[in-house]
Specification:
The chain is mainly α and 192 residues long. The protein is built from 5 helices and no strands.
Amino acid sequence: MSIIAPTVPAPILPRRRQLLFGATFASAGFGAFILTAVGMYLQARAPIESTWLSEHAIPLTQPNVQLGTLIMSLFTVQWAAYSIKRDDRGHAFLALAITLLFGLAFLNQTWFLFTQIGLPMATVEGPLFYLVVGGHLVMVGVAIVFLALMTVRAIGGNFSSSYPDGLSAAALFWHAMVAMYTVVWLTVYIMK
């Protein structure tokens, strides 16, 4: 025999936020990897700073445009998360499409930069440069795939004002990716 009266409604349990927790842990993992790679890069550069990248110049135009592209994408990914929380699906889809285009433009700019630098792996700088920049490139690829999957789910109607966690998680990971590029931009491209 139960002591709860049959007229008492079942308690409303709080929503679980697995996607947000997963995105947070993935962001922390990628961040730890990139910061470790940047630390290795700076440690190797410190004793021979005068001759570091003396034979291979890195142009600043592409990294600066990449940073500008990612800064613009911060606004569009947040616009998408904001719109889906208010059931404004049209604006959410537009913002998601623009953000994905910004991400693909970043990948294109990085590939062009690799062809311009031509830094061989036989030098001391080569492996460390490609470790740092390539590690961030992997993070960008994961962010694009994650955002694309959440876009498909949003198109399918899985996210709305009552459950916006998927796009919020993708936006969180996107923000972490841009923050890591800022570190890479400052240490690799600006400080050279």
